[in-house]
Design a protein that fits this description.
heterodimer; A: alpha+beta; Immunoglobulin-like; four-stranded mixed sheet; 3 helices; B: mainly alpha; two-stranded antiparallel sheet; 25 helices; 76% helix; 1% strand
């Protein structure tokens, strides 16, 4: 019976040693437990290759879809953003709608934190073009807000970057919507 | 552009904290520097990074680096990339990257934090020597007291995992103002010491932990654990009174109460008081049977009844225990079979978002199924969680590769469209790219330039006469010739005077406009030169494009083919890896279930044996006269 007690208590002893899930100590059955390390290495290798391939595909797709000579890219950024909560943006180039974008809370938060969104990529011939960006959201005092900004720009044979900036104006306590051309 | 905290948020290291609540994270973020973002592509990477889309962010950043469009933020980009590798579970890449960064490229505080989180992820993946290597790379103290303590605890845990107990003990002893993390580590040390025979040393730690102030549920649970473990260690050494003293400190309502009740019963049994042992065991009999303590209590109750010579009741309890154990063994076998079909893993992954959170992602809820009861400890373990994260990430990669295998077909169409457009443009380009035309234009330009130089050199004011003036000059010249002829026949003085005045006025007009006209000419020449330069440039560009475009198309075709092959190959690799990872997860679950099955089998064997003994005893009693 002493053996019986010892065996049973030993069963519990094994239990109590590994009972605390938060920080389990080295497993006494580690020799039998499946080894995760080899697969972890294999997955690391796979991730590296897949990411490398994705990078190359991304570049190739961009080259095919948007050659540098005709490429135009429109970005959106928010500087601070206390006076405006962005819901959506509409882009028109030469009076034609090229993009409509609705923002999730997560995306709006990423902009608020300083990220810049690449909103639109397209192709344009050289020469003059007009961009109109319309912003919809909530302005000061949570009122519905709809504002547009426009720019006429010259497209050369190089890539054109335009940045739509939503900026807080401390002077007027209103958001301002600007466009910046990048060389 | 927006000024943001770059370096401190790059690693989002606070958010990588191990079980530290998200709302506590910002307090730990160290403000390292404020800097204006000057490159759109770097800022776009941050847009994805802030949304925890690490896969997309890494692809975008590395593509931008490949295109060489990130230069001002080159160092920050490398640190960000290292942090994102970590966040996507790529600790090996992260380690290599951080090793390459020089002290000028990354502040020591950021580097130390990176190594800390590397050590953490490696520890959670059971890569103990690698975790040790990472933690040894930390040069200074981490930013906050809490983080520094966590580092020490992590180091101790890494050493414990490698069975280096004296070194672990030394680190834990040096922790000032220990918190719950160090308590956990000290508990693990104590258990390890007891298991390896350093019983007194282990008990000393458990006694300290059994008396800590416990203001919250978590620390109360830790205190219970310490007292429970102490109690059982005394049972092991057959010191029931000390066992009772400690087991009684365990809360009756806590999650360890079942084990405590079981232990109390064994302690009373060791004191030879089976009646007192029955009380906690019979209480346990009424509780949830998935708990191992409850499983054992069935056997223990029958055993105590046997000791009290209540053989028929003991037999009843053994019989009940045997039926329950047999049923449970079968249920565990059924669960193992179910695990092998993969349906349990599918249940876990069902309803989980397929975003790219990588190492951040955690299983939110165990599936509401009987299997979860058996596997609850495994599901909560680092080993299983990390394996599940890897499984999820491989799934994500398969989806990604599947999408690319469809999208790449459109690349052929895009290329064909461009080739067709180019074929249409070639005749027009040829018309514009005419070297003879360029030479002619240049000759004409040079002729104009030479004429201007001659006019200036010879001071040929009349050379800048406009067309009307030139006509008038010709008329004046003819008048002069007529006057010469007529002067022999008649008096032409009056006519000559008029001629002199008209000629003078004309000459005066031309001369007075000479300066402005020369300036206008030179300006026009400059404009002509600019236009010619632009024309030459465009012509050269067109010529280059005409020459290179066919080879560009060839190059694109070859790149598309190569990548198509890579997509196919990696997809196969990923599927094989997913299957292997699935097998691993199943193996982990099966291992856990088999261990439980083995335990219950041993209970079953004991129950059957004990029952046979009682029956045998009863038979012998009847046989005796």
């Amino acid at each position: 019976m002493k053996t019986f007690v010892t065996i049973l208590a030993l069963g519990i002893f094994l239990l109590f040693g590994s009972a605390y899930a938060a920080q389990p100590p080295a497993d006494t059955n580690a020799a039998q437990k499946p080894d995760t390390r080899n697969l972890d290495t294999r997955i690391q290798d796979l991730k590296k290759e897949v990411l490398g391939l994705n990078r190359d595909l991304f570049i190739l797709e961009e080259e095919l879809l948007f050659p540098a000579t005709s490429q135009v890219a429109i970005f959106l950024s928010m500087d601070v953003g206390h006076y405006f909560k962005l819901d959506s943006v509409q882009l028109k180039i030469d009076d034609k709608i090229v993009d409509n974008y609705l923002y999730s809370d997560r995306e709006a938060d990423a902009l608020f934190r300083g990220g810049v969104q690449r909103l639109h990529m397209g192709n344009l011939k050289t020469g003059q073009h007009e961009l109109i960006a319309t912003f919809v959201g909530k302005g000061p005092h949570d009122r519905d807000y709809r504002r547009a900004t426009t720019i006429v720009f010259e497209k050369s044979n190089n890539s054109k970057y335009l940045e739509l900036k939503i900026v807080d104006s401390e002077a007027s306590h209103q958001p301002e919507f600007k466009v910046k051309e990048w060389e | 552009m927006r000024i943001i905290k770059i370096l401190s948020s790059l690693l989002l290291v606070a958010n990588l904290a191990w079980a530290i609540p998200a709302q506590a994270a910002p307090a730990q973020v160290e403000e390292i520097t404020w800097k204006t973002i000057r490159e759109l592509d770097f800022a776009t990477t941050l847009y994805y990074f802030f949304q925890r889309e690490y896969f997309t962010a890494i692809v975008y950043l590395t593509a931008s680096q490949e295109k060489n469009v990130i230069q001002y933020h080159a160092h920050e980009a490398q640190i960000l990339l290292g942090g994102m590798y970590l966040s996507f579970g790529m600790h090996r890449e992260a380690g290599e990257l951080f090793s390459r960064l020089t002290k000028d490229e990354i502040p020591q505080s950021v580097r130390d934090r990176a190594w800390f989180y590397l050590a953490k992820i490696r520890y959670q993946r059971d890569l103990y020597p690698e975790a040790e290597e990472a933690i040894q790379r930390i040069e200074g103290k981490l930013a906050s007291e809490d983080l520094e303590r966590e580092r020490q605890v992590l180091h101790a845990n890494i050493l414990l995992a490698q069975k280096r107990y004296p070194e672990a003990e030394q680190i834990l002893a040096n922790i000032k103002d220990p918190n719950k993390w160090s308590y956990y580590a000290r508990y693990n040390l104590a258990v390890a010491q007891i298991r390896t025979g350093e019983t007194e040393a282990g008990r000393k730690i458990l006694k300290e932990l059994g008396s800590i102030k416990a203001p919250d549920e978590e620390s109360q649970a830790l205190r219970d654990q310490a007292n429970l473990s102490l109690g059982y260690s005394y049972i092991q050494e057959e010191k029931p009174e000390q066992a009772l003293e400690n087991l009684r400190k365990v809360r009756l309502q806590g999650h360890l109460s079942n084990k405590a009740l079981l232990g109390l019963g064994w302690a009373y049994d060791q004191l030879n008081e089976p009646k007192k042992a029955l009380a906690p065991w019979m209480e346990l009999n009424k509780r949830n049977f998935f708990d191992p303590a409850v499983q054992e209590s069935l056997l223990a109750t029958a055993y105590a009844l046997g000791k009290l010579n209540a053989d028929s009741r003991a037999l009843e309890h053994y019989q009940t225990a045997i039926e329950i154990y047999q049923g449970e063994i079968q249920r565990l076998e059924d669960t193992i079979n179910l695990v092998h079909t993969g349906s349990y893993l599918r249940q876990i992954m069902e309803g989980e978002t397929q975003n790219e959170m990588g190492w951040f992602w955690e299983m939110q809820e165990a599936p509401k199924s009987p299997e979860s009861y058996y596997l609850i400890h495994l599901l909560a373990s680092h080993t299983f969680q990390e394996a599940l994260k890897n499984y999820r990430d491989v799934n994500l990669m398969i989806s990604n590769l599947q999408k690319w295998s469809e999208d790449i077909e459109t690349f052929d169409t895009m290329l064909a469209t461009r080739e067709a457009a180019y074929a249409q443009q070639v005749p027009r380009i040829k018309g514009h790219v005419d070297p003879q035309q360029i030479a002619r234009l240049q000759q004409t330009r040079d002729a104009y330039a030479q004429e201007i130089d001659r006019i200036v050199k010879d001071n040929d004011i009349m050379g800048l006469a406009n067309s009307a003036e030139s006509i008038q000059l010709n008329k004046i010249h003819r008048v002069e010739e007529r006057l010469e002829k007529l002067s022999a026949q008649r008096n032409v003085d009056e006519a000559r005077e008029k001629y002199r005045l008209v000629k003078g006025a004309l000459y005066w007009n031309i001369a007075s406009n000479y300066g402005p006209r020369l300036w206008d000419l030179r300006k026009s020449m400059k404009e002509l030169d600019t236009a010619l330069q632009e024309h030459n440039r465009m012509t050269r560009s067109l010529a280059t494009r005409k020459d290179h475009t066919p080879s560009d198309f060839t190059d694109y075709k070859s790149r598309i083919e190569k990548m198509r092959g890579q997509i196919g190959q990696l997809k196969q690799q990923a599927i094989a890896t997913l299957n292997a990872q699935e097998n691993l997860l199943e193996a982990l679950a099966t291992h856990e279930l088999r261990e439980q099955q083995q335990r219950i089998s041993s209970y079953l064997t004991h129950a059957q044996f004990s029952m046979a003994q009682i029956q045998d005893r009863a038979v012998h009693k009847e046989d005796k006269p």
